[in-house]
Amino acid sequence: MEERLQKIMAHAGIASRRECEKLIEDGRVKVNGRAAQLGMKVDPATDRIEVNGRVIDARQVDFIYIALNKPKGILSSLDDELDEGRKTVRDLIPLPGHLYPVGRLDKQSEGLMLMTNDGDMAHKLTHPRYGHNKTYRVTVEGRIPADVLDTWRQGIYLDDRKTAPVEIKVLRQEVTFTLLELVMREGRKRQIRRIANTLGYPVRHLVRIKIGPIDLGAMKSGEWRHLRPQEIHALQREIASHKPKKNVKRKT
Q1: Can you give the pTM of this predicted structure?
Q2: Active-site residue among 106, 147, 150, 160?
Q3: Residue range 139-158, pLDDT digits in tens
Q4: 80 assigned to active site
């Protein structure tokens, strides 16, 4: 059966769907000996697909789904773009093959990340048009007042666009800090830290505790594990229940 090329490549574990699109745009993919075009449809049972000169078998792939507790100071990308020898989340998982992160956490943040070779699932869990929940525990400096929290809940303007509404629960409040639980459906770059700074209550500590139905649980910093079958099924149900929203751009 024919499917869009980037979707088939993602299913084969080549990369996330977004990265597969870039491979096609860069001319690094061929179908039946000819340069591939973004958006073209192919049949993995009959068409010959090459990536960087290597033929891929898109018909069968053993998907891997991993939960990781990312430590502070570790990059959530697959490689160190600055080539400074910094550790990445991929370095923490000693398994062969393609594995890429579902979403990102900035270097100073920690907590739950999912790693997989299922590019289609990764795409549907990270693209903002699907609107999946992510839950964070955030400690900010100072005793943040109720009216400021209401402003945060309703959304503020970042980069000339208003942020989506956020669910916020106050877990603890002292003179010097406030502990919050945030549930978000979008994830612009360093969004929580930028909003907190804009409102005048900088982040002291940030940890992601949940992605969709998957909990961080009792995993220690740096630990990882394979998702249980019931967790994978829960993710699949989560994806099936979220119809994509129209005209929603990916956040950077």
Answers
A1: 0.76
A2: 106
A3: 999 999 999 999 999 999 99
A4: no
